[in-house]
């Protein structure tokens, strides 16, 4: 714990943490040391974990990096957090992120941007940027983030980490601040697949507090990693991505080189067509903003956090609290979402996007019937400069081109490090598997490192 606290102190300029629970973490470590001596310590004894500021930790601040939740203190533990504590993990602090997890660079936080530890002039990715940098800079061993459209995998790629988005519904969302509820997943950052697998098996599984969570039993993911390496898989690579104009050449080269290595290892690799590729991003942004506009209606200046002092009546209380409390990008998403849900445009946008989502899911599932994995980039570029895309939201949304498919479909996907570009910036490789195939996904990914 002291080692990590020192790193947090030394690298304060990275702005990864919003709160550090120093005394608590040290006290807990001392308690766990005693348990270890008695042989009663849990499975994660002493694992130092950080939480993205969207996960409820009882009696600690929680505000999704937003002014609108100023002063809000969580009254309960989210299920994933409770399960970590039950197995004797140590929570070291609350991590900076894009406001309400909306963003791809961590520049939308009310607390300022997070800097990438590989190059302080560059973004760490988003929205779970603080969680990624915290692991990158050894401020904790593992972080929990949330992945609605890539927010764990994309920053993992920009920071050279392993980042897992499990199958939708594999981990309870109880105690996770909602963004797009049909996409939201808690995800895990680590430096190794082993760490991620171990945490997943602790936090996944049925939960009475979340009616959407899967009832399927949770296998031992960490044991699955020890399985024999002789299994040969069928891997698909999407032609449309290969042809994609915006893909940085070095990313393409590293992924093709990795695919060659996969083939040389005795697996089969085939190039396949996915003609729906161009519809994935627009589908995501229509549906995620629609859900966000509904989810964020609860922040009304009455129930939680921030309340405007300028209000003169009830309607101005709502308007002013929301206008002053929410940042620009969140307001943009609420407006977009409200527009696509409005009576005159509902069918043209929302209903249409739902239909396209179904087509994308069916087509992806069809591919995953014939292949064990789909391999693709996570991001079109490596970590970009701070401020590079802040004036152009569309450009920023394009950073999510390859990460949103797994969320639109619901299947699990992982980011693993795959070399660096000429400037030494990390490149990430994405592997996607079928629903609830995390054991296979983790096992295969581990052999690629
Ligand atoms: N960058 C995407 C967005 O802004 C994904 C965010 C996320 O996964 N939370 O919607």
UniProtKB/TrEMBL annotation:
One of its GO terms (molecular function) is transferase activity. It comes from the Bacteria. Its EC number is 6.3.5.7. One of its GO terms (cellular component) is glutamyl-tRNA(Gln) amidotransferase complex. InterPro entries: Amidase (IPR000120), Amidase_dom (IPR023631), AS_sf (IPR036928), GatA (IPR004412). It is an enzyme of class 6 (ligase). It catalyses: L-glutamyl-tRNA(Gln) + L-glutamine + ATP + H2O = L-glutaminyl-tRNA(Gln) + L-glutamate + ADP + phosphate + H(+). Keywords: ATP-binding, Ligase, Nucleotide-binding, Protein biosynthesis, Transferase. Residues 1-442 form the Amidase domain. GO terms for biological process: translation. Pfam families: Amidase (PF01425). The active site is at 52 (charge relay system), 127 (charge relay system), 151 (acyl-ester intermediate). Heterotrimer of A, B and C subunits. Belongs to the amidase family. GatA subfamily. Allows the formation of correctly charged Gln-tRNA(Gln) through the transamidation of misacylated Glu-tRNA(Gln) in organisms which lack glutaminyl-tRNA synthetase. The reaction takes place in the presence of glutamine and ATP through an activated gamma-phospho-Glu-tRNA(Gln). This is Glutamyl-tRNA(Gln) amidotransferase subunit A. It comes from Chryseolinea serpens. The gene is gatA.
């Amino acid at each position: 714990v002291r080692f990590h606290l020192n790193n947090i102190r030394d690298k304060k300029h990275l702005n990864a943490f919003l709160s550090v629970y120093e005394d608590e973490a040290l006290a807990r470590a001392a308690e766990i040391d005693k348990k270890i001596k008695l042989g009663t310590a849990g499975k994660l004894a002493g694992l130092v974990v950080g939480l993205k500021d969207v996960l409820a930790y009882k009696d600690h601040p929680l505000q999704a990096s937003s002014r609108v939740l100023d002063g809000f203190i969580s009254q309960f533990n989210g299920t994933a957090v409770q399960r970590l504590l039950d197995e004797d993990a140590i929570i070291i602090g609350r991590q900076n992120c894009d406001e309400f997890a909306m963003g791809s660079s961590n520049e939308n936080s009310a607390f300022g941007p997070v800097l990438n530890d590989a190059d302080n002039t560059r973004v760490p990715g988003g929205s779970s940027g603080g969680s990624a940098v915290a692991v990158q800079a050894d401020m904790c061993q593992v972080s929990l983030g949330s992945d609605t459209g890539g927010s764990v995998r994309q920053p993992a790629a920009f920071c050279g980490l392993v980042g897992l988005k499990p199958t939708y519904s594999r981990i309870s969302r109880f105690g996770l601040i909602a963004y797009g509820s049909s996409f939201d997943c808690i995800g895990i950052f680590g430096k190794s697949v082993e760490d991620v697998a171990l945490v997943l098996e602790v936090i996944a599984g049925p939960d009475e507090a979340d009616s959407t969570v899967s009832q399927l039993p949770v296998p031992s993911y960490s044991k699955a990693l020890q399985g024999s390496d002789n299994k040969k898989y069928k891997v698909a690579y999407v032609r449309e991505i290969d042809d994609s104009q915006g893909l940085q050449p070095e990313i393409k080269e590293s992924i093709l080189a990795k695919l060659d290595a996969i083939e040389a290892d005795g697996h089969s690799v085939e190039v396949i067509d996915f003609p729906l590729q161009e519809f994935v991003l627009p589908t995501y942004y229509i549906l995620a903003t629609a859900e966000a506009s509904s989810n964020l209606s609860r922040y009304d200046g009455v129930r939680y956090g921030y309340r405007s002092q300028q209000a003169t009546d009830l309607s101005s209380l709502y308007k002013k609290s929301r206008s002053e409390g929410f940042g620009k990008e969140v307001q943009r998403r609420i407006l977009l979402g409200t527009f696509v849900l409005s009576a005159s445009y509902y069918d043209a946008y929302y209903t249409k996007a739902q239909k396209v989502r179904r087509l994308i899911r069916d087509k992806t599932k069809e591919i995953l019937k014939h292949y064990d994995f789909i391999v693709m980039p996570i991001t079109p570029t490596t970590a970009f400069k701070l401020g590079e895309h802040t004036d152009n939201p569309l450009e920023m949304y394009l950073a999510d081109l390859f990460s949103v498919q797994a969320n639109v479909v619901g299947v699990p996907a992982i980011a693993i490090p795959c070399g660096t570009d000429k400037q030494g910036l990390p490149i990430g490789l994405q592997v996607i598997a079928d629903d609830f195939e995390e054991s296979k996904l983790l096992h295969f990914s581990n052999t690629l490192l």
